[in-house]
Sequence to fold (81 residues):
Amino acid sequence: MTQEVDNTLIHCNKCGFEGKGKVSGAGAFIFMIVLLMASAYFLPLIVIALGFMVWIISQPSKRSCPSCKSSDVETLTQQQT
Fold:
């Protein structure tokens, strides 16, 4: 089993930081796990949990600046580095 390493560099428009960005968004995954566990007691919740899982997977990952925590960042390409 291989795991993809994310080496995407970002440029922060707020503080000017350039480097590896922080990926955020784990809170929605925890909520989905709670929904799946609750569906053992109330079966229709599994439909909501599966729909929520599809929505989470379809969303792009959110990057933020590790220095100032701003989400106003741009992805740098190989030519820009």
The helical segments are 27-38, 45-58. The chain has two domains: 8-25+61-81, 26-60. The beta strands are 9-12, 18-20, 22-24, 62-64, 73-75. Residues 45-58 form the longest helix (14 residues).
